[in-house]
Design a protein that fits this description.
The mean pLDDT is 82. The two termini are 35 Å apart. It is built from 30 helices and 20 strands. Strand 5 (368-369) and strand 6 form a beta hairpin. The protein has 844 residues and is α/β, with parallel strands linked by helices.
Length: 844
């Protein structure tokens, strides 16, 4: 052990007692920083992950590790000091490893100098620390491997440059082995056999696992096996130098080494098939681990389903969000494949321009998204089952990451199911209208019709369609007595209802609620008053116009309760992660009953208010007028509720329907009436989701019109209820998982702080302008000029506030650049210069 320490100390002294190590670390930091900030555009991603840093590190280390390892033997061979090692009674393997430890110490010091990036992302938000730690572990292992490879060639030649070139070449081969660009080049059989053999040495899959946050127990062993292989090769070559009369190829060691290199693919395959199946998901949100609902769904697949991921890798790599999301998609698809026991088969196609892959992507419904360049980006998923049913997700938007698992699971569910569940809808509002088709439909209606067979019901019916799993009732204007009877009997037979009634709709003109529906609700113990709910603390921001222009203010009649105001124990709201936006929701009153229980699912804050019908009559409910007519209410108000229990019938006997006057139609109607089952007076256990609002169904309340992103969980809430009530609970549990994207909350806080200041200043100025406008009417021209001057000065003050905000963001980015790039690099160069001067001084 003393020889090991002595050699290691000698090499460390050679590195750190000279400027070599510090120059190396400084150059490494500069390259890493410029690549992270300028090429990968770290700050532009607005995400607190270190993927922009880690994606370049293997390529830098493939070059810089040989720069450290090239001298470890070549310098000794050139100066003949290696003879000391060759003649010493110490095993060469011990000397070789001592030199490797010294070189690895330098590389770890360089990697440690990038830790400020970890501090920076922790300052900017809440990064995934497990994912970052796993990537650093892989970088240490790959650094050690690249160093040992370069030392192998350093043991061959006295020329350090030759060792550097050979080491870099082999390292790069290991990095590119397994990439599509390599396998595509292999055309004939010998070339394919060669590339297949090289693939077993490739590091691409190991690095991909690290980027995804998956620790396979076989990955560290593969690194260690490659290190051992090249270490044995290096020691074998050194032993041949120590004994010139015994060439490597004539010794049993050389033959063993050749067998090891040729047999390494088999060993790696064995590791992958055995302990490689043991995987640990180190991500904070368990992004690589399917939720229980998704696992159950994947395990239920009995016949093969082929999923094809179309991803323009070359184009997507230019966009950090797309590149990171592509890794997430691939990891998720692989997890589905594993959970299905091989019944879900995954294929990835890179649709290059004017290729058959591009033609296939277009025919399977994948969107061609325009980019900044000439060629479009394809990033979508298609699926097909054995009977050639086909489904597609045209574009996998990174902004919709929180819905990714659900969307893939829904596709699998549709391909795995022969028939879809049937859903009945009785609605007189545009957001749920069977007469509207195509792109004119609301997003909720499209989601329902994509997943379920929909039967559109009317207010005059003589029978309900067979097989209805659930019924949605949304603001019907007319409801015949017999139709109400059919709905009543459906509920009593154990059917589930989703009922929406709105006393003050904002997005449509259907203001009348059918009186039979109101009477039926009374039988449940539920009364929908004419009052509407307001909550100033939860109001959505809206833009209002005034004489001085537009401004953004909070609208109290549009409350947006966040998940802290949801019932997190009820499966209808437990998985929701975003607010639900309401519009002038009604006020519910519930009379307690032994047979029926009410569970508040979504509530206001503890300081809501009510606006009566009289107070809002002949008044436009702008944010200002709403505040003027609000009446405080003590305690939270329910905005969505579940009614559960055994519901009594609203009828004492089956009513006689009003048959059509036409004899033929009358006979047909009578036939439908006769087909109905007998009267039920007391029902089975059933559930009703009641929402005193219909505006939540409209896209304008939860979808950003600029980019189509979902800003609230309105759709997820309703679709979760449908999934549960219509017999597909596995999908309901997948509606809203935490997103993989972790935003830079510090930047968001700065922006919100600036916007709050801006809004407060703007509101103050606007109030002053209203006063000035009133004064203008009673003042002379001279005063008008003064008022206009004051107005212009106020507008200039607002623009200055905006500029200050932009300067704060730019200043933050500049400070972070300096902390991660220039400060560590300059410190390394300063240490290098200091040591150089110190050596010169004491060498005189």
């Amino acid at each position: 052990m003393s020889a090991f320490k002595s050699v290691c100390k000698r090499e460390l002294r050679a590195f750190f007692a000279s400027p070599l190590a510090y120059v190396f670390i400084g150059v490494y930091l500069l390259l890493s920083g410029l690549a992270t900030w300028n090429i990968a555009r770290f700050f532009d991603t607005a995400r607190v992950d270190l993927d922009p840093l880690f994606q370049f590190q293997p390529w830098f280390l493939a070059i810089l590790a040989p720069a450290i390892g090239m001298r470890l033997w070549s310098e000794d061979l050139k100066s003949r000091s290696s003879d000391i090692y060759f003649t010493a009674p110490v095993p060469l393997i011990k000397i070789h490893l001592a030199k490797a430890v010294a070189g690895l110490t330098v590389l770890i010091a360089a990697l440690s100098a990038t830790l400020p990036y970890w501090v920076v992302v922790s300052y900017l938000g809440a990064p995934d620390h497990g994912l970052i730690a796993l990537n650093y572990l892989h970088l240490i292992l790959i650094s050690a491997l690249f160093l040992i490879i370069s030392m192998t060639f350093s043991a061959v030649t006295r020329q350090q440059v030759v060792a550097l070139v050979l080491g870099v070449t082999v390292n790069l081969i290991l990095l590119v082995a397994g990439l599509n660009i390599v396998t595509d080049i292999a055309g004939n059989l010998p070339a394919r056999l060669l590339t297949g053999w090289l693939d077993s040495f490739g590091l691409f899959s190991l690095l991909t696992n690290a980027q995804r946050g998956v620790l396979r127990l076989s990955d560290p062993l593969i690194y260690l096996s490659l290190m051992a292989l090249f270490c044995i090769a290096g020691v074998t070559l050194l032993d041949a130098r120590r004994r010139p009369g015994h060439p490597v190829w004539r010794s049993w060691t050389g033959a063993t080494l050749a067998v090891l290199f040729l047999g390494f693919p088999a060993m790696r395959a064995t590791l992958d098939l055995t302990i490689g199946q043991v995987r640990i998901d180190v991500t904070g949100y368990q992004l690589n681990t399917l939720s229980p609902g998704a696992r159950a769904l994947a395990a239920s697949v009995e016949e093969p389903i082929d999923l094809t991921l179309f991803y323009s890798e070359d184009i997507g790599s230019e966009y950090p969000n797309i590149r990171a999301h592509a890794d997430r998609v691939e990891a998720l698809l692989n997890a589905f494949a594993v959970a299905s026991n091989g019944n879900i088969r995954i294929q990835t196609i890179n649709p290059a321009p004017f290729s058959s892959g591009e033609d296939l992507a277009i025919t399977q419904g994948i969107s061609a998204v325009p980019t900044e360049g000439v060629d479009p980006l394809y990033f979508g998923l298609s699926g097909r089952n054995l009977v050639d049913d086909q489904k597609a997700i045209p574009f996998l938007a990174p902004e919709q990451d929180h819905r990714l698992e659900f969307e893939v699971a829904r596709m699998i569910s549709q391909l795995n199911s022969v028939t879809r569940s049937r859903l009945g809808i009785l609605s007189d509002i545009p957001a749920l209208d069977g007469a509207i088709t195509g792109s004119q439909r609301s997003a909720i209606q499209r989601a329902i019709e994509d997943q379920y067979q929909v039967s559109w019901l009317t207010g005059d019916m003589y029978s309900l369609p067979d097989g209805l799993e659930a019924i949605i009732i949304a603001q019907p204007e007319h409801l015949s007595t017999y139709t109400l009877y059919l709905l009543d009997q459906y509920l009593l037979s154990g059917g589930n209802l989703i009922v929406m009634a709105d006393p003050e709709p904002v997005m449509h003109q259907t203001r009348q609620i059918a009186e039979p529906l109101r009477d039926w609700m009374t039988g449940w113990g539920l009364t929908l008053t004419s009052d509407i709910v307001a909550d100033e603390s939860l109001g959505l921001p809206v833009t209002v116009q005034s004489a001085s222009g537009s401004r953004t203010v909070s609208q109290p009649i549009f409350p947006a309760p966040n998940p802290s105001l949801f019932d997190l124990e009820d499966f209808l709201t437990a998985n929701l992660r975003q607010p639900i936006n309401f519009g002038a929701a009604g006020y519910l009153v519930f009379d307690d009953s032994d047979a029926i229980s009410l569970t508040p699912l979504v509530s206001t804050s503890e300081t809501p208010a009510l606006i009566s019908a009289d107070a809002r009559s002949n008044v436009s409910l702008t944010p200002t007028t709403a505040r003027n007519v609000m009446s405080p209410h003590e305690g939270a108000i329910t905005l969505a509720a579940r009614l559960s229990g055994s519901f009594p019938s609203f009828f004492t006997a089956a009513p006689q329907p009003d048959l059509p006057d036409d004899p033929v139609l009358a006979r047909l109607a009578a036939s439908e009436v006769n087909s109905n089952t007998g009267f039920i007076s007391q029902g089975q256990q059933a559930n009703i989701l009641f929402i005193p609002d219909t505006d939540i169904l409209f896209d304008a309340f939860y979808i950003n019109p600029q980019d189509g992103t979902t800003i609230a969980d309105n759709r997820a809430f309703l679709m979760t209820a449908i999934d549960q009530f219509a017999g597909n609970p596995e999908l309901a549990r997948l509606r809203a998982r935490p997103p993989a994207i972790r935003p830079m909350t510090r930047v968001t806080e700065l922006r919100n702080e600036a916007e709050t200041l801006y809004l407060a200043e703007q509101t103050s100025i606007e109030d002053r302008l209203f006063e000035l406008e009133a004064e203008i009417e009673s003042t002379d021209e001279t005063s008008n000029v003064r008022l206009q001057t004051e107005y212009l000065e106020a507008r200039e003050a607002l623009r200055d506030l905006q500029r200050q905000f932009r300067q704060r963001i730019d200043g933050l980015e500049a400070w972070l650049r300096g902390w991660t790039i220039w400060f560590p690099a300059l410190l390394a160069f300063l240490l290098s210069a200091t040591i150089r001067l110190w050596v010169r001084r004491f060498s005189r």
